[in-house]
Amino acid sequence: MTHAEHPVLATDGLTVRFGGHVAVNDVTCAFHRGTLTAIVGPNGAGKTTYFNLISGQLKATAGRVFVNGEDVTRFPAPRRTERGIGRAFQLTNLFPNLSVLENVRLAVQARSAHGFSLFSMASRHVELIEQAEHVLARVGLLDRAGAVAATLSHGDKRKLEVGMMLALERDILMFDEPTAGMSVDEAPVILDLIRQIKADTSKTILLVEHKMDVIRSLADRIIVLHNGYLVADGAPAEVMSSPIVQEAYLGTGVADHV
Amino acid sequence: MLNTLFSGDFPRSRWLTGLLLLIAVALLLAPFLFPGSRPLDTAAKVCIFIVLVASYDLLLGYTGVVSFAHTVFFGMGAYGAAIALAKVGPGWGALLTGGALGVLSAMVLALLIALFSLRVRAIFFAMVTLAVASAFAILVSQLFHITGGEDGLSYSLPRELTPAFRLVQDKVFDVRIDGRLLTYYLVLTACAGLFLGLLRLVNSPFGRVLQAIRENEFRAEALGYRTVLYRTLASCIAAGVAALAGVMMAVWARYTGPETTLSMDIMVNILLMVVIGGMGTLYGAVVGATLFVLAQNYLQTLMAGLSSAVSGVPVLPNLFAPDRWLLWLGVLFILSVYFFPTGLVGRLRGTGSGR
Ligand SMILES: Nc1ncnc2c1ncn2[C@@H]1O[C@H](COP(=O)(O)OP(=O)(O)O)[C@@H](O)[C@H]1O
Ligand SMILES: [Mg+2]
Predict the structure, then answer these.
(1) Distance between Cα A145 and ligand 1 center (Å)
(2) Domain range spanning residue A118?
């Protein structure tokens, strides 16, 4: 079997239950190479939880996850990362007391074979540092390279978060509200970056985003989650005009974005 | 050159550099600067505890792992050498084989503990190590025909390490160049090598991953690092280094018993030394161990002097009675944690977090 027959990423009946609450309920969906899929839904719909199930931060109660046709449901997070899943978190998730450069350098190092190099000096692996600096330049943080991550502004932390995922150079990129809380002049840096990545057709992008103008300009497809269910799936224009989406958004006052 | 030796990780503070240089010179010239057996004994213990505390800092300060079994590994190294010397006789073969077996068993035990418990929550790991520590102490006292039980073991060293051995017939700067001096310099050299090795380890790509795990294990996993493997390897290395410190302790003291290697007191002392010096900065181990061992050895003397100096005043002589030295050590500890929450090294570097 060649991998070309398979979607890059697929979930089959994916479900997770927290006590009595079903946060993601029987979601079956496939994602194809070179596409950007926007995932929308009101707060608490299960978008982040769906991401956690895919990248392995959470164990599914039922259902399966496939990467290039391989069942990765039982893989822990590091092995899924190895298989090609990159993740940027909604709640910024950094190494707070390390420098900005070191945060990204650790991501670069993760895909090199150097992690178990015990007696070489990290500062002498110049190639890793250069690659990290290259990524910092892409997200516009090169001038902050020496700063301690915890001291960054919110917007810069979001950029670093995205930079760490980019540095992994995975084929599947999952952005969870990457521009949330960013100022109007900061957000375009990230959005341009997503646009650039999209131009590389070997990537598969999943993007959780609320701003409909952003989705309209970037997405090839929209899926809608509501109360853990996948309630709509299709081309942006079609999904945005469907009654079910209008209803889902009306319930939470996000309607003005639609 | 210096950069390679110190792995690019310099003290980064003029005061700290000065303090470390002072400690290094004092240790290097101890037999000549402070004649007598008690100062030399103190100097050797400083060296050994620097390595022991630094190996513990690899776990606590760099990886964020809390373990109470560090004295077990220290003890395994010490007992390995001690049992071989006591049962086989004072030869180099016995010392090296026994020591190597002790170090090896310490690393295997660390591996087993890690495999059984590093996957679970940190508090559970700490409890497991606590249980292992008391179980090991009981085992040592039960197997008294091998370990000497509560009395411990006394033994002789290879001839070259005994006071009777003369390397040079004449005195140098009025100091006899005997086996005792040779032992001291062996211990000092080994400790310096181990310390610099640990310094390299924490500044290696591997060491950076350990820090990432300490900072945010969840994210380290998401980047693709198998954190359990990293923590397991760190535990084994720390155990091996602690056991080597134990071998040196056995050689230096010519006696090994539960009181000097396994007691909970020593475990608590190691914790205090790490915290006083500053966690996650190996230099903290140097500063912490030096101050602590000095206080342990000389606070009583100092207090005896103070007590007689204030003998006319009410209450005060009692307060400074040498028996109260532990109380004052406690007071010093509380003060240092209160005023230097990032340890002395953090304080001297003038940073919030030491890194
Ligand atoms: N670890 C958890 N334990 C219990 N409930 C959770 C957990 N994670 C998420 N939830 C719940 O699952 C639902 C979906 O949350 P989430 O996926 O974060 O929504 P979204 O990202 O779409 O805003 C929410 O009701 C949330 O409270
Ligand atoms: Mg969310």
Answers:
(1) 34
(2) 93-169
